[in-house]
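Quick illustration, no need to memorize.
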Amino acid sequence: MTPLELVDRALDLLLAKDMAGFAGLWSADGVLEFPFAAPGYPDRVSGRTAIAQYLRDYPSILDVREIPERRVHQTVDPAVVIAEFDATGVVVATDSPYRMRYIAVITVHDNEIHCYRDYWSPLAAAEAMGGSAALTAAFGGSDV
């Protein structure tokens, strides 16, 4: 599977709410990074097991129903791709509409994600979730 195909597979698993499958795409020592993490929100999750734990409850927080725009770009390094996508759905706790734009820089080795840097907007996420306290309660925590 090429890095482009792996990213497409990851987004398909996200839509299918298969978080175990999604986390299973990472290498055993892979990392999920959030360079723009909000205060109280983890900026890095290390290891497939920790990533699976971190993502486990995602569908009960956000019901992602569609990725209406998806662009995946190959970089000059064949192991690195950049994904731009919109996710739409519903914030489960409030039944409010959810729409977020994402950009991720993803490094793939041996058909596994080695590093996924997720450049999301904490302000937009907090607004969608119903405030910064709701965002931190849903995704934050020091046990990651």
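The chain has six helices and seven strands.
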